[in-house]
Amino acid sequence: MADKFDVIVIGAGPGGYVAAIRAAQLGLKTACVEKWSNEAGKPVFGGTCLNVGCIPSKALLESSHKFEEAKHDFETHGIMAQDVTVDVAKMQGRKNNIVKNLTQGIASLFKANGVTSIHGAGKLLANKQVEVTDNAGNVTVYDAENVIIATGSRPVEIPPTPLNEHVVDSTGALEFSEVPKRLGVIGAGVIGLELGSVWARLGSEVVVLEAQDTFLGAVDQQLAKDALKQFTKQGLDIRLRARVTGSEVKRGVVKVSYSDTKGDHELKVDKLIVAVGRAPNTDNLLAPDSGVNLDERGFIFVDDQCKTNMPGVWAIGDVVRGPMLAHKASEEGIVVAERIAGHKGHVNYDCIPWVIYTHPEIAWVGKTEEQLKAEGEEYKVGTFPFAASGRAMAANATMGMVKILAHKDTDRILGMHIVGPQASEMIAQGVIAMEFGSSSEDLAMTVFAHPTLSEAVHEAALAVEGKAIHIAQRKKR
C-alpha cells in the first residue's frame, strides 16, 4: 500500500490544482493526480483551461485582434501600415510559450506548497481509496481521508461530424498551422464565437451554424441582438435554426449537410470546428462500489457544498452541476479545501460572472431581463451606450452598452450586462456590487474616474432612476 493522504485531488485543472494548493496551505497532507502528459512523458498541469482552452484561445484572440486593428483601424488613428501580414507559426509559438510558462508555474506552486504530484489516471475505489494507473500501465492504490474529484470536461462529439484531419473540436481549432480559406463552425456558443472570431480576423470566410432559434439564449437579449449586429458586420455569417445532418470529406473539402426552416442545404468548407458543448469526464472514474452517484447526464451528484453522497468524497468544477467556468471551479476548490480543514466556506452561485471574449466582449452577472419577466419579478432598467463615452471614443471602441437591472421596490441590483470594450474587466464591478447587496443608488453615488470606460457603469446606474447625465432620457415619474 502506498502513502496515505489527508486529501487526494483527482485532476489538476483550475479546480483541482487550486484545491490542492489551498488544502496544503491549510496544513493537510495533499496529493494531486493528473494523467495529462507532454511530449517528454512528464505531467502537465492546468487541465483544459490552461492547455487547450481559456489561455491559448485568449492568446490567439489577442494576436488576431491586433492584426485586425493594424489592417483596418490604425488609419483612423492616423497610423499608416501597409501590407500587414500574419505569421501563423509565430503566433502559435507565442501561444504555446504562454501555456508552457503557466503550466510549469503550477508545478512550481505545488513544490512551494508541498503538494505531492502523482502522474497517472485516477479512479475512485471503495473506502476513499484512489487507484492510479501510470503511462506504463503500473497500478498503485492510495488511501485518503478525503477525495476531491476535479476531472473536468471534454468537447462533445456528434455523430453527423466525426472528427478527422479537417473536422476538429475546440482543441484542434487552436492548432491550425495556416488560415483556412473557408471555415465552418457548428455552435454559436462561447467557444464557437471565440474560435470563429480568431480565424475570421485572420482572413477566413466563416459560417457559423447554430441549431437554436435564439442567438445566445442565455444572454440578455437586448445585448445579444446588439452583439449579433456587430459580429455580422465583422463578417461572421451566423445561421440560426441550422441543424447539421451529416458531413463528408472529399479531396480536402468538407461538405456539411444541414437543414433549416427553408429546407436542406450544403456548405463546403476547408475546415470545420465542432463546438456544441462539453461533457463531464466521468468515464472509468468511479469503481462500481465507490458509492458515488452520477446523474442521467454523467455529472457527479453533489449538494450545495460540493459533497457527494459518499462521506469524505467531494466533487467540483465541470464534473458537477452549474456553469462550466474555470473561475467557478477554482472557487469551489478553495471552499472544499476550507471545509475539509474545518473552516466555513461558501460559493455564491448567484454572483458568478460569464464572459465571451469576442470583440466586442460580452459579460454578465445575475439575472437577465427575460429571466426576471419569466419569474414575475418587478424591476427597473438603466442602460448607457459606449457611443456616449469619451474614453470609448478615444479608444475607437464605441459599440455596445452597459445595462443594469434593479429590483423595483428595494433597488437591489439583480443583474449587470455589458457588451463592449473591456467588458470582461468591468463586469467585476457588478459582481462586487451584487456580492455586497448593493442598490443601483450605491453605484450611482460612487465616484468613478474620468475619463474611463467604467463611467458607463456609473451612468447606467444613474439611468435606473432616469438621472443619467451624458445621455438624454425620458423623465421618470
Automatic annotation (TrEMBL):
Cystines in this chain: C49-C54
Primary location group: cytoplasm
Catalysed reactions, semicolon-separated: N(6)-[(R)-dihydrolipoyl]-L-lysyl-[protein] + NAD(+) = N(6)-[(R)-lipoyl]-L-lysyl-[protein] + NADH + H(+)
One of the protein's GO biological processes: 2-oxoglutarate metabolic process
Record bears the keyword Disulfide bond: yes
InterPro entries: Class-I_Pyr_Nuc-Dis_Oxidored, FAD/NAD-bd_sf, FAD/NAD-binding_dom, FAD/NAD-linked_Rdtase_dimer_sf, Lipoamide_DH, Pyr_nuc-diS_OxRdtase, Pyr_nucl-diS_OxRdtase_dimer, Pyr_OxRdtase_I_AS
Cofactor: binding details: Binds 1 FAD per subunit.
Chain positions recorded as NAD(+) binding sites: G187, A188, G189, V190, I191, G192, L193, E194, E210, G277
EC code: 1.8.1.4
FAD/NAD(P)-binding domain segment(s): 5-333
Keyword flag Nucleotide-binding: yes
Residues annotated as catalytic: H450
MF-aspect GO terms: dihydrolipoyl dehydrogenase (NADH) activity; flavin adenine dinucleotide binding
Location within or outside the cell: Cytoplasm
Boundaries of every Pyridine nucleotide-disulphide oxidoreductase dimerisation domain copy: 352-461
Cofactor(s) needed: FAD
NCBIfam families, sorted: lipoamide_DH (TIGR01350)
PANTHER family, per database record: DIHYDROLIPOYL DEHYDROGENASE (PTHR22912:SF224), DISULFIDE OXIDOREDUCTASE (PTHR22912)
Family recorded in the similarity comment: Belongs to the class-I pyridine nucleotide-disulfide oxidoreductase family.
Official protein name in the record: Dihydrolipoyl dehydrogenase
Species, as recorded: Hahella chejuensis (strain KCTC 2396)
